[in-house]
Amino acid sequence: MARYILLVFFLAALTGCTSINVRPVADVSAIKHVCVQESPDDCFVEDMPTVIVEALERNGISAERFTGKMPDDCEYHLKYTCNVTWDMAMYMHHAEIRLLQGRRQVGSAVYHLNGQGGLSLMKWQGTKTKIDPVIDELLGKKTAESK
Predict the structure, then answer these.
(1) pLDDT tier at 3 (50, 70, 90 boundaries)?
(2) What's the order of all strands across the beta sheet hosting 104-114?
(3) What confidence tens digit (pLDDT) does each residue in 60-98 have?
(4) What is the rounded distance in angstroms from the CA atom of residue 13 to the CA atom of residue 117?
(5) Which residues, including other chains, have CB under 8 Å from residue 21's CB and lie 6 or more apart?
(6) What gap in Å lies between CA 48 and CA 128, rounded to an integer?
(7) 3-class SS of residue 70
(8) SS3 of 118, please?
(9) Widest Cα–Cα separation across the chain
(10) DSSP state letters, 29-60
């Protein structure tokens, strides 16, 4: 019995667990353009803004990046934060994304590796692999993880 419990514990640690919690945008058809606020102090993942912009554009929404003051013509803007950790290499284990219309939040998403990924090799996947399905779900598209 002890061997069985140890095996179950080892397999759970090996696989890790990804938690994705999304509150999708109610009417994505209204969104034509999004300004993505770059957050180098809130996210040390260099390619995060590029991945977000590409995911928005892949979903038919034009996007631009900005730092500092938001451009006046931005009805919708996106803010993000993320956390990285180290285990033989740096990797992202947590990200939060908020889509706003003015000051009103219209959608949000959280990506989180429980236990910072444990022993799972999936924790070292790239930003695109981790964030693309999150943005898709934020914009109302069902992904394999959410079906």
Answers:
(1) low
(2) 17-23, 104-114, 90-101, 76-86, 33-37, 62-66
(3) 999 999 998 889 899 999 999 998 787 777 777 889 999
(4) 8
(5) 109, 110, 112
(6) 8
(7) coil
(8) coil
(9) 65
(10) GG--EEEEE--TTT---TTHHHHHHHHHHHTT
Report CA-CA distances (Å) from 26 to 22, 34, 64, 77, 90: 12, 16, 22, 16, 35
Give the per-residue pLDDT at 125.
78
Nearest to 37 by CA among 76, 91, 92: 76
Q: What is the pLDDT of residues 11-62, one digit of tens each?
A: 444 445 878 889 999 999 999 999 999 987 887 888 899 999 999 999 999 9
| Nearest-10 crossing angle of helices 48-58, 127-138 | 40
